[in-house]
Amino acid sequence: MNLYLVVPCYNEELVLADTTKQLDAYLGGLKEKGIIDNAQILYVDDGSKDTTWVLIEQLHERYDHVSGLKLAHNVGHQHAVWAGMEYCVDKCDAVISIDADLQHDITKIEEMLEKYSEGCEVVYGIRNDRATDSAFKKNTALMFYKFMSAMGVDIIPNHADFRLLGSKALKALMAYPERNLFLRGMVRLIGFKTANVYFDVKERMAGNSKYTLSKMLNLALDGITSFSVKPLRIITMIGLISLLLAMGEIIYVLYAYLTGETVAGWTSLLISVWLIGSVLILSLGVIGEYIGKIYSEVKRRPRYIIEKQI
Known about the structure:
- The structure is a single chain.
- The chain folds into 2 domains: 2-208 and 301-309, Spore Coat Polysaccharide Biosynthesis Protein SpsA, Chain A; 230-298.
- The chain is built from 10 helices and 8 strands.
- The chain has helices at 16-32, 52-62, 77-87, 109-117, 135-150, 167-174, 183-190, 213-227, 230-258, 266-298; strands at 2-9, 38-45, 66-71, 94-97, 122-127, 159-166, 194-199, 306-309.
């Protein structure tokens, strides 16, 4: 069995050497057990600004099973993972995506491979808890999954991008043409037999998480607008409610006019103007987000550009 590990990297100079050492030792153990025949570690440098690529080149010289892709500029975590999977789609029997900081438990790789040998083409790595996260990140993550589910997106709670894809599932995923990538939702659309593997999140070896709040919000927007039209339907419902309220206001105004009780009221006027205005602007923003996604899709620009590969 040929296995590829796809490891997206963005400014990971502090952890790469130790990450490679741990992965090399673990994959060597899997070979000795006869679970795999060959394994490659594919680092995808997502336009890092530090010495990440230099380290990848050095690691390639030291370890014959370490290879790398250097993207011409930063395209984001999802696109970096896609670049790695697309590179190895015809080179392996299975691919596992894993973060460079190894907060994903590498000891669960063997369990993933066992599930694959049982016929599972997709194996999801799911967090048992978020003990290593700050209170803010933990709460925002929980809100993220609940909100995505409320919007009708089929997503597994506490599953990030630690997963195994068999060659069939990987080729099926590569057939999806969209540029706005939300892999956690896209993989769910593939089908095939799936399984879950649960793990405890480890402390980050060094450095800080590269997944900032703004990146999490962008990921949520990509997920919602790529997999759900529920926000558009909510706008329709708001429009209908506003119409009913407006009809009630019109009836009240006509009644007041006929009974001679027409007294100018700044409060009701201002409330009406601000309420309707804010609803209209919010609605235009949501519609604009969808139009923006369509705009980026129809241009068909490449998801990424490879500058170097080893």
